[in-house]
Amino acid sequence: MLQRPLYMFWVMTFLLLSFCTAAQVKLSVIPSKTVVQQNENFQLQFVVEGASQIDDFTPPSFRNFEQMSGFDQTNGWTWVNGSLSEYITYTITLRPKIKGRLPIASAIVKAKGKIATSSPIVIFVKEAGSIKQVEEERPDYYLMPNENLKDKVAKNLFIKATIDKHSCYVGEPVLATFKLFTRLDSESKIVKRPSLNGFSVVDMEQPETGIFSKEMYNGKLYNCYLIRKVQLFPLQSGQLIIEPVEVENLVRMIRARARSTKETNTWLDAVMEKVKEEEYSNGDVIQETIILKSDSLKVNVLDLPEKNKPASFDGAVGNFSMEASLLNKTIAANDYATLRVVIKGKGNLPMITAPTVHWPSGVDSFDAKLSEEIDKHNAPISGTKTFDIPFAVSKAGLFTIPKINFTYFDEQSKTYHTLSSDSLQLNVTAAVKRKTPVFHDEPIVKEGLPRWVWVASVGSGLLVLIVGIFFVQHKKEQKAKASIVVPQQQVEEELQPQKTMDAYLQPAAYVLQGLHPKQFYTLLMQGVQDFLIERLDLQTKNISNTQLVQALQQKNWPDLATQFQELVQACELAVFSPMEITDDRELLMQQSKELLQEVDKRS
Q1: Confidence of residue 458 (pLDDT cuts 50, 70, 90)
Q2: Is 401 helix (H, G, I), strand (E, B) or coil?
Q3: Which helix (H) or strand (E) holds 289?
Q4: Entry's InterPro entries (predicted)?
Q5: Residue 72's Cα: distance from chain center in Å?
Q6: CA Rg, the chain, in Å?
């Protein structure tokens, strides 16, 4: 009879050892409280499950807490759902030094040749006497049983689109900012860009991947990601709408239940409470795809006043100064000189063109060369535009270049201001004569030679000259007959056909299906720009997208100007956005072809 109990004892012992051996090593952290008062003590328990002994235990740093005791170690085991679970606990008593949201990093344990880490936690420290009936807080990525997923996401993940003004004049800059605010674990990508029809657009900042700032909103601290920050210059009056940006978000949350509000007294209480919680939640991670969109924004754009509008006004809005000077005050006739006009200030500087110059008779001017230094990081845009205008004078004399007028509209005072330069004097001297040396061939006659020798020499020379002329003429005729192809080659070189539309888009088409989409957008934009510069017969390739938009508008093609502007916005956003852009390369390629075909048809 005694053998059976002994047998059962060894069987149970073997089973217990088997359970212990098979158990997975796991490290958890259990605070006795997660909301404490300042200067209040609480206990922090690190529980190593699935091991009867450990090789090493590394606690986290407690820099925001006073350690009121050292670590106390306890070993034990318990039955959970018919299985034996061994554990080792490390207990420490802490007291917060400051109030606020105090994080505690992960602890690390090494047991059975494996390494396990605990999850980081947050202890909320309130002022003394402020914790009556306060519920313990969890991080926002925990979904409590009484919480709705979409409601929680709406409070903790959203897009804010803001503008610095809702009413302005044509050409007056408007600052628009698009930001993503989040307190959750999520991955985001843009699925619809904001439409900015009716505006000329200048990007202020290039968002950097993974870079965020901390911002307070409605009393909560959020991670804030910049989607786009631009300055918008209205091109027309009326109500212009900034369409919303749409972002697809993959949100991850942990399903949990509210923790017990009672303070745990023993390690076993803490472990059992944690086991019950894990049985309830089963460590579920919820993944949900949610589309977020910003609000549409309306801008009421007013026409610039017609009253007292000077004839020299050409669309400049802001606050500016102007200087004009001659780089060469004295030149010779038929030589070149340069008139420099410098415009400084802030406003719609990218849209400002060279002012009109009334040249005196006898002066031929050429296209201005533009150089600019623009600060795009502040609103409104500020900087300097320098126009160097080359010209030539065909005759000598004293020439006067009349004063140059530049007019801008000051949106603050709602008045026009005209700036005038001094008249400029140019002294033109007579053209420089470039002498050509003349060589005289005189026969050398040596004294004492008979006259017949001199006559024979001259006659022989004339005969050789006649034969030479005949020979050279004959060779020219033969060369002309034998080289009929040469003029044709020259004609082909001089009359090369224009590059086809496909040739401009070929580099982008080559990388269309490649692994580097940002390269596609850059090449596509370059091809479209080169095509427009060639078809619109623009004199320089150093031209901005804003100037190309203006060139299309001057052709009275506002629809094509809008198409080009939308294409530029799409490519720039794809290149500079920190988020992954939904692949729309095929669509952009097709839109580019349609734009180029229409420009080609109208040219």
Answers
A1: low
A2: strand
A3: strand 285-293
A4: BatD
A5: 54
A6: 42
Does the N-terminal peptide bond of residue 380 adopt cis geometry, omega within 30 degrees of 0? yes
What's the confidence (pLDDT) of residue 270? 52
Q: 140-149, 420-429, 438-447: lowest mean pLDDT where?
A: 438-447
Q: Element (H or E) spanning 428, and its range?
A: strand 424-429
All residues at 6 or more sequence positions from 57 whose CB lies less than 8 Å from its CB, including other chains: 46, 48, 90, 107, 108, 109, 110
Distance between CA atoms of 94 and 309, rounded to whole angstroms? 74
Pair 570, 588: CB distance under 8 Å: yes
Query: How far does Cα 109 stand from its chain's mean position?
Result: 44
CB neighbour class for 174 (10 Å; exposed up to 12, middle 13-18, buried from 19)? buried
Burial of 368-391, coded b for 16+ CB within 10 Å and e otherwise, reads bbbeeeeebeebbbbbebbbebeb
CA contacts within 13 A on the Cβ side of 414: 7
Return d(Cα 289, Cα 149) in angstroms, integer.
11
Tell how many helices (H) and how many strands (E) occur in the chain: 10, 34
- Name the token pair of 158: 């959203």
**DSSP state, residue 420:** E
Give every CB contact of residue 134 below 8 A, 6+ residues apart in sequence.
35, 126
d(CA 354, CA 502): 34
Comparing 73 with 169, the larger pLDDT belongs to 169
Taking 50 as the threshold, does the pLDDT of residue 8 lie above it? no
Would you say residue 368 has pLDDT above 60? yes
CA distance 25 to 258: 26
pLDDT of residue 206: 65
Closest CA to 292 of 261, 326, 255, 248: 248
pLDDT of 444 reads: 43
Tokens representing residue 119 in the block: 């999850």
**CA 344/CA 323 separation, integer angstroms:** 9
CB-CB neighbours of 175 under 10 Å: 16
- Are the beta carbons of 333 and 395 closer than 8 angstroms? yes
pLDDT of residue 274: 52
Is the predicted pLDDT of residue 437 greater than 60, yes or no?
no
Q: How many CB atoms lie within 10 A of CB 135?
A: 11
Task: Please give the Cα distance from 273 to 266 (Å, whole number).
Answer: 11
3-state secondary structure of 115: strand
Computed over every residue of the chain, the mean pLDDT equals 78
- Residue type, position 452, single letter: W
Cα distances (angstroms) measured from residue 317 to each of 2, 169, 198, 234, 345: 105, 9, 17, 11, 10
User: What secondary structure, in 3-state letters, does 580-599 show?
Assistant: EECCCHHHHHHHHHHHHHHH
| Cβ atoms 418, 269 nearer than 8 A | no
Q: What is the DSSP letter of 501?
A: H
User: Residue 350: which of 201, 177, 240 has the closest Cα?
Assistant: 201
Binning the chain into helix, strand and coil, the percentages to the nearest 5 are: 25, 40, 35
Q: What is the pLDDT of residue 515?
A: 54
Q: Find the helix or strand (DSSP H, E) in which 426 lies.
A: strand 424-429
Closest to 589 measured CA to CA, from 529, 504, 531, 524: 524
Cβ contact 317:409 at 8 Å:
yes
3-state secondary structure of 508: helix
Whether the CA torsion 488, 489, 492, 493 is positive or negative: it is negative
Task: State the DSSP H helix or E strand holding residue 179, giving kind and residue range, or none if neither.
Answer: strand 174-182
> What are 561's two structure tokens?
């100007």
Collapsing DSSP states into helix, strand and coil, what is residue 529? Answer: helix
